[in-house]
Fold this sequence. Notes:
The chain is of the alpha/beta class. It has two domains: about 5-70, CATH 2.40.240.20; about 80-255, SPOUT methyltransferase, trefoil knot domain (Alpha/beta knot, 3-Layer(aba) Sandwich), CATH 3.40.1280.10. It is built from seven helices and twelve strands. The protein has helices at about 20-30, 90-100, 120-140, 155-160, 180-185, 210-215, 230-255; strands spanning about 5, 15-20, 40-45, 50-60, 60-70, 80-85, 105-110, 150-155, 170, 180, 195-200, 220-225. A seven-stranded parallel β-sheet has the order 8-7-6-11-9-12-10, sandwiched between helices. Helix 2 packs across helix 3 (about 120-140) and helix 2 (about 90-100) runs parallel beside helix 7 (about 230-255). The chain is globular and about 60 Å long.
Amino acid sequence: xxxxxxxxxQEIPAGDTLAIRDSEAHYLQRVLRLGKGEEVTLFxxxxxxxxxxxxxxxxxxxxxxxxxxxxxxxxxxxFAVATALLKAPAMDMVVQRCTELGAFALLxxxxxxxxxxxxxxxxxxxxxxxxxxxxxxxxRQCGRDFLPEIAAVPGIGALADCFRNYDVxxxxxxxxGSSPLLELLNSEQVKGCRRILLIxxxxxxxxxxxxHRLIGSGAIPCTxxxxxxxxxxxxxxxAALMSGHFLTNAARATS
Length: 255
């Protein structure tokens, strides 16, 4: 039986009694409709997960007895997705799908074509909190033990500065001469890279100046399809190709 998963933003010592409230308590009581004596899995998004048994339910709170715990090792290999800021429904979907596909980080940046635009730190903070909640729900559903790091990056220049944290950066581009992403992932230049950043622009694509800045900073242009994709479709399809690439390499390494 697949255990029901509950997010707890803290360390969870085995043998402790733990009371949870707010959204996760509501999830157990009203969504899953669980009762006393039923078993769940607690996870903290940083690799720790524990089995737990519900011992008490009151309005707005659930008490659990924590059982055995395990800590998953975080892989040194993986991919991150940098996406231009999109409208809420599309942006929410990108966060959800990229989390499910295993991106270890999501960087959100603005371009000249970005709609909507940030309206100060309060607006950015609210968005980051919303995206974290979406990522938690995605991890809860798909069984991943690690939440992606989600960060707002202030513009193309700051995004280019992030390239030093990756072995290679690939930018989705419609420009002539771009190689298909799958071809690049299997090339000698990229296939051995441990940390890859995939960059996807806004609806309407990057301006020529923005794309020139990214490529001039070392990003390799790539194509995701023979058609012009919506920005959210491009981000998710690119993440799916990256996920498959790392999954295949991991299977080869253990065979």
